[in-house]
Design brief:
The chain is an all-alpha fold. About 85% of the residues lie in helices and about 0% in strands. The protein contains 4 helices and no strands.
C-alpha cells in the first residue's frame, strides 16, 4: 500500500509539472513568434551602442541556454548510466564543467552589464 501511495503521489506530481511545463512552453512559443522577435531585435531604430548591447545580450542568452542544455544532458546521462561507474564519472564531470560554464557566463554578463551601464552613464547616455 505504501508503494502504491508513493507511486500515485509521484504520478500526480509528474502530471502536474508536465501540464505546467507545457503551458510555460506554449507561452514562450507565443512570445517567440516572428513578429514579436522582429520587434525586439529591431536594430534599425537603434544607435550603434544599443545595437551592440542587443547583440551582447542575445549572445549571452544563447550561451546560457546551451550551457543549461549541456547540464541537463549530462544529468540524463548520469541517470541512464546505470551500474557503469565510468559513464557516471563522465556525466558528473560534464555536469561540473557545465555548472562552471554557467557561472562564467553569468559573471561575464554581470561584468559586461556593469561596464556598459558605466560607459552609458559616463558619456551622458540614457543608462
Amino acid at each position: 500500500m505504501k508503494k502504491f501511495l508513493s507511486f500515485a503521489l509521484s504520478l500526480a506530481l509528474a502530471l502536474t509539472l508536465g501540464v505546467v511545463s507545457v503551458q510555460a512552453a506554449t507561452d514562450t512559443l507565443d512570445d517567440l513568434k516572428l513578429e514579436n522577435l522582429s520587434n525586439q531585435l529591431d536594430v534599425s531604430a537603434q544607435g550603434p551602442a544599443e545595437t551592440l548591447v542587443t547583440i551582447i545580450n542575445t549572445l549571452f542568452g544563447l550561451l546560457g541556454t546551451v550551457a543549461l542544455l549541456i547540464f541537463l544532458y549530462a544529468g540524463f546521462q548520469w541517470m541512464m548510466s546505470g551500474d557503469s561507474a565510468d559513464g557516471a564519472k563522465k556525466a558528473k564531470e560534464r555536469m561540473k564543467n557545465a555548472a562552471i560554464g554557467i557561472f562564467l557566463i553569468l559573471a561575464a554578463y554581470s561584468i559586461s552589464s556593469f561596464v556598459i551601464n558605466a560607459l552609458t552613464t559616463a558619456t551622458g547616455g540614457n543608462g
